[in-house]
Amino acid sequence: MNRFGLLLISFSVLLGANAFADSTMDEPQNCFRGPFESYEKWETVMNKKKPGFDIEAFHRAFPAEKFNQRKAELDCTDFTYQSDQFNVEGFYLAPKSPEKQLPVVIFNRGGNAGFGYIVFGTKMDLPAELASEGDIVLGSQYRGASRHLSNNGNDEFGGADVNDVLALIDIAKTLPQADTSRIALVGWSRGVMQSYLSAKQLPKLKAIVSIAGNADLTQAVVWRPAMEKVYAARIPDYATQKHQRLAERSVINWLDKLPPAPILMLHGTADERVSAEQSVLLAKALNGAGHKNKLILYDGDNHSLSNNRIQAFTEIKTWLNQYL
After folding, report:
1. Domains of the chain, residue spans
2. Least CB-packed of 167, 201, 266, 279 within 10 Å?
3. 169-209 pLDDT, tens per residue?
């Protein structure tokens, strides 16, 4: 068991046997384990298992110095937890041995079911950037995404799986180093929807960051008809209640339900998965409602903001530092 797991056990003993009921980080494991124990092992595994692996691009995007710095400065933990009656996977990143309480950022991933599962390299990307800024970062893989857990449930694409996000806040409240009066939500793609749906239940939320997300799923499926298959496969009662189910998941329909947390929206104008017009539409609606927001469009960039990641991450960190 790693040092973070021992911290959780010690803290639970201090609070009593029932302190972690239904909101525990179970089976904690250090992210820097096995093939990710060293930079050399990570590189070797990628080279063997990823077809067409570009080792030079890998070195440019994630040099050894960055890996070693992350490992030296950050705690990174994979864990399981209970959400409703299901077993769900989550992850945690934070500075090692903080001298004061830190704000909490809930990172909401994109994709659906196993597609978009947060792998080690993704943890070392934006989540690690935020942890390096002095934030505690918690994220969920969502129910229905696990490759090994039993009783993992089904992804409902913005249905009951929103509870998987909210349960992370209950977990944060058990961490002595977490200041849960300062919480922000950061979502990418489908994770933007998860953030807005969760925000409805978080009146004291401090900030929201939306990266390449939809605001109106009804319009989104017209623009990208291929998503109809995802919606039909994941959303309960979609065949008979399509309009209602999409409306329930579209923040544009219930802006008045959001807390007053300032919203930063980032979007590439050449996004092939989510139209940038979704963020434009939401920004106009937020302006009309008097809700503080900022929209940044990256001309010609894609869903991953591949051409502007440094600028985008700087904008995100600045936003969170300002409001957390």
Report:
1. 75-323
2. 201
3. 999 999 999 999 999 999 999 999 999 999 999 999 999 99
